[in-house]
Design goal:
Length: about 950
């Protein structure tokens, strides 16, 4: 864990040269000072000699005490320590990531300062020239003569480059880590094991949202294109923080936050914290994903972008759409009101035991569109805009950033689903359905960030973000269904809106500069929502011999379904940081409250007539007004399970200490106490049946953690970490009632007896940062799970439930390298190489109570055995920036088998992407990408049988950015 003061943030911003309009271009070198300009020096210290050779002794030196001269040959075992701080001469605060070049008898080497501007050099005796520099500051050179076993204190004051035509304005809020080198500098100085990806790196990929971008990070994979898995663990084992605050999920059936809510254009950096620190939420398994949004730039900046894309299996083809999906609001992903619960449906009672005429009128008011229609798929569209600045208003420094985006896309997908069963002959296929799915998706996002310096030691900033995703899905499927003993035709129309609104206000106050006493506080409010508006399901039985089909009068057929989820969360916290001797102490408290409301209503048309010919009609004729009341009767089938109310309140306090044992060794240790109260009740005033229950849980946990950092050289870290963390069951997993999974067409039930999973985590890592944008690292990790929660098959119909296994473990290793071929030959310096490989093995001990499960020894649910990423890039200012990217993850369990049925695995998919970008002129940049060039099938296998398969297609995108 690292904590950065406001003044330090200011310095790091300048060090990373974020004031340029193009973050992915190299920062210009600062101008050298005039030769006749004196080198800035610390007024509190005597000036150091500035010649390349040692200073001559004074003329009046005693004869019996000759002037000191550098040793002709240093003693083999002798060393010299040079330590100090690189300081901004105006603000008197340290400059992190400043470059220090050391030229001496053994050649040259380069290091960077720590986050507080400090540095420590270990040299052999001799004469050295040391150059201190960082972007937007005047370079300083010092000549140092070092004697054996000597310690030299050397503080360096750097002056900012003088303003020319414009005032140089520094950022005063957050580090704008758009640049890869800044992310690596933060990672090098951090107390925890972590990895990250910057917006500069994302710009070299075809990724449009956070979910796509995360798969480039070491040991990270993405499930269903939007749920992140860290070290092979997903869902409950991953927490997502937005600017340090835990985000709620807008999904009713899972803990994970869908990353497609976060367009990459709104993000600054994403960091995966892999070793725990007590300042983080105690819900920690695979790791914590920390998303930081863009902060304001140092000078006025405007950026506009437009992009378009096409897919080989979708664009230009006939795709399935909803005939109601028309108009500008639908294009933006918002319902236009046509899918809302009709006003004719009473809100104070169920549609049951009513007058026949009233029931008929309600039935006739429901939308009568059931069959997807065909429409030629057009290319996708994306628009982005950003404006920001830092200026002075009323003598106060003020910064702001506003950003917005729109993305509209259409995906057409064709494939096959299958079911399996066990017979005397072994595993056999029971169901076989061919499907076509069309998904029109639109994302709208906006971000506003503003901050002000109230004084030299006090600042306040306000942040707000809104993201909305609308998915309009049309689906047709046909084939044999064993449970119905006939061929069937299935159609489905659904529209789902998901939204996240997040606001935060926080302040920083330097209470005592000498004691480095700093107070940080924050308050936050988040609201997530998910609206499923009028999902319509219809099933026909098909007589292949007669060439006819007949309406299946059964639950789930002829059904309208509405569901609304609202999750409101808010909280506040404060952190106090100070120094006591060699220790930096940090303590804090947090209260985070969450309230979730889920409500749903379902209706279906029950056949009450005697005309079989009516049941053979197309749906829109069959459910016409003429047949409602006479042939079909509307009934409400809402269950108690369709609605619940839940609360999760977490109260926490923590304390940790970072002690520098010596300049090379840091120990960071502490503990967190968390109290959580979780309760849930279900039930609906409209229910015809179902189970009502109440679940109440109180948990108190103490979560210790320790991180050790040994730096034998300034550019190298050896890390070791241990922690004890937990993952809590989510609301739906605790609820002892059934809910229906319409995608897999199965029932899923919760278990109120689930225990909280506790985890022992251990990490080791070696990392070397030879330059500002290079890294080599190797890691090993181990996790021991106590009472891990597993989703398991409940019966041979593939229905699912949740159980605690007895225990589980995960062991793995990671290797990462990012460098250039300039290490081989300077002429190859423009070629970048990046690769990371994670190999993992997990096993779960099911215990004696779960003998129904087929595999008594198997990997953890959802855990991949390996993740591989490779990137090859070439950048030349006059030609362009070209990148080839490869990604693959190992097979992982999607369903655990029961009673002889094998586990279901998602098979590996090899993905290859190509991206080319070129500046057409100074203010115009063109980007071309080709994604998934290998176009391998996505495939799920249960034993030897493929239970789901489709081809995603190859995507091509063209984008244009204008920065006036």
């Amino acid at each position: 864990m690292f904590r950065i003061r406001r003044s330090t943030l200011l310095a790091l911003t300048a060090a990373c040269a974020f004031g340029t309009a193009h973050a992915d271009e190299p920062a210009p070198a600062p101008p050298a000072p005039p030769q006749d300009q004196p080198t800035p020096s610390d007024p509190d210290k005597p000036a150091e000699p500035t010649e390349d050779k040692p200073a001559d002794p004074p003329k009046d030196a005693p004869a019996d005490k000759p002037a000191e001269k550098p040793a002709d040959k240093p003693a083999e075992a002798a060393t010299v320590t040079v330590k100090g701080t690189v300081i901004d001469n105006n603000t008197k605060v340290g400059l992190p990531a400043a470059t220090i070049q050391i030229k001496g008898p053994a050649g040259a080497q380069t290091i960077a300062t720590e986050l507080d501007g400090s540095f420590t050099l270990t040299l052999s005796p001799g004469a050295y020239e040391i150059v201190f520099s960082t972007a937007e500051y005047i370079e300083v050179k010092r000549a140092v003569t070092a004697k054996a076993n000597q310690t030299i204190e050397l503080d360096i004051n750097l002056d900012p480059v003088p303003a020319t035509s414009q005032e140089t304005i520094e950022i005063v809020d957050k580090i704008d880590t758009r640049k890869e080198s800044a992310v690596l500098a933060v990672r090098r100085a951090a107390a925890t094991v972590s990895d990250g990806v910057s917006s500069q790196e994302i710009s070299r990929t075809p990724d449009s949202n956070a979910g796509d971008a995360m798969k480039r990070v070491v040991a990270v994979s993405v499930v269903e294109g939007k749920y992140v898995a860290l070290r092979g663990l997903e869902g409950r084992y991953v927490t997502t923080l937005m600017n340090g605050i835990l985000l709620p999920s807008p999904e009713p059936d899972r803990n994970a936050v869908p990353l497609d809510l976060f367009p990459t254009t709104l993000l600054s950096t994403m960091t995966v914290v892999k070793s725990y620190s007590p300042h983080l939420p105690g819900q920690f398994g695979g790791g914590t994903l920390s998303i930081d949004t863009s902060s304001f730039p140092t000078s006025f900046e405007v950026k506009l972008g437009v992009s378009t894309s096409a897919n080989t299996v979708s664009t230009g083809k006939d795709g399935l759409t909803n005939a109601n999906a028309r108009g500008f609001r639908s294009f933006l992903g918002f319902d236009d009101g046509s899918r809302a619960l009709p006003k004719s449906i009473p809100r104070n009672r169920a549609v049951r035991d009513m007058d026949a005429g009233e029931t008929e009128r309600i039935g006739e008011s429901l939308p009568n569109v059931w069959t997807p229609t065909g429409e030629t798929v057009t290319p996708n569209l994306g628009l982005t805009a950003m404006v920001g600045n830092t200026t002075k208003i009323g003598g106060k420094r003020v910064g702001y950033l506003a950003s917005g985006m729109l993305r509209h896309s259409f995906t057409e997908r064709s494939g096959r689903n299958a079911g399996v069963g066990i017979t005397d002959q072994g595993l056999v296929q029971t169901d076989s359905l061919d499907f076509d799915v069309g998904v029109a998706e639109a994302t709208v996002g906006a971000l506003v960030n503003a901050g002000i310096d109230l004084s030299k030691n006090d600042e306040i900033s306000v942040f707000g973000m809104y993201s909305h995703v609308g998915e309009d899905t049309s689906q047709l499927a046909s084939g044999f269904k064993e449970s119905d003993s006939t061929d069937i035709d299935v159609s489905r129309l659904s529209f789902v809106e998901r939204a996240l609104m997040f606001t935060q206000v926080h302040g920083k106050h330097l209470l005592n500069r000498s004691k480095k006493l700093e107070l940080k506080w924050q308050g936050n409010f988040a609201k997530t929502s998910r609206d499923e508006l009028d999902t319509r399901d219809l099933v026909y039985s098909v007589d292949q011999m007669a060439g006819t089909r007949s309406y299946q009068d059964q639950p789930g057929s002829g059904q309208h379904f509405w569901q609304e989820l609202r999750d409101t969360a808010g909280g506040a916290g404060a952190d106090l940081q100070f120094r006591v001797g060699p220790a930096r102490i940090q303590t804090g408290t947090l209260a985070q409250l969450s309230d979730r409301q889920l409500g749903g209503r379902r209706f279906r048309f029950k056949f009450v007539g005697d005309s079989t010919t009516v049941r053979n009609l197309p749906a829109e004729q069959m459910f016409s007004a003429d047949n409602i009341g006479s042939e079909f009767e509307l009934e409400e089938g809402t269950l108690h399970e369709d609605s619940y109310q839940a609360k999760l309140n977490t109260y926490a306090g923590y304390a940790l200490s970072e002690v520098e044992i010596n300049p090379k060794f840091r120990v960071i240790g502490g503990a967190r106490f968390e109290r959580s109260t979780q309760n849930m009740t279900n039930g609906s005033r409209y229910a015809i049946a179902g189970l009502q229950t109440e679940v109440n849980r109180d948990d108190n946990d103490v979560l210790p953690a320790a991180n050790l950092v040994f730096s034998p050289r300034p550019d190298t870290n050896l890390r070791a970490a241990y922690s004890y963390t937990l993952t809590r069951p989510r609301f739906r997993e605790l609820a002892p009632f059934l809910f229906f999974d319409y995608v897999r067409r199965r029932d899923i039930s919760g278990n109120p007896n689930l225990l909280t999973t506790h985890i022992h985590n251990a990490d080791l890592r070696w990392e070397w940062f030879p330059s500002e944008d290079e890294v080599f690292a190797a890691s090993a990790f181990y996790k021991q799970f106590v009472d891990p929660i597993e989703q398991v098959a409940a019966n041979v119909n593939a229905d699912a439930t949740f159980l605690n296994a007895k225990s589980g473990n995960l062991i793995g290793g990671e290797i990462e390298a990012r460098t250039t071929l300039g290490r081989i030959d300077d002429s190859l310096r423009r070629i970048r190489l990046g690769a990371n490989i994670a190999v993992m093995r997990s096993r779960v001990d099911l215990g004696k109570d779960q003998m129904l499960l087929t595999s008594q020894s198997r990997p953890l649910y959802g855990q991949s055995p390996f993740v591989i990423n490779f990137a090859l890039g070439y950048a030349a200012p006059k030609i362009g920036d070209f990148n080839l990217l490869y990604n693959v993850i190992g097979q992982r369990i999607t369903d655990v088998g029961i009673e002889g049925l094998p586990d279901t695995y998602e098979k590996p998919v090899h993905r290859l992407d190509f991206v080319a970008a070129r500046a057409l002129r100074k203010d115009l940049k063109l980007k071309l990408s080709a994604s998934n060039l290998l176009n391998q099938n996505v495939r799920l296998e249960q034993g030897s049988i493929v239970v789901n398969e489709y081809k995603p297609g190859v995507s091509f995108a063209l984008g244009l950015d204008w920065t006036p």
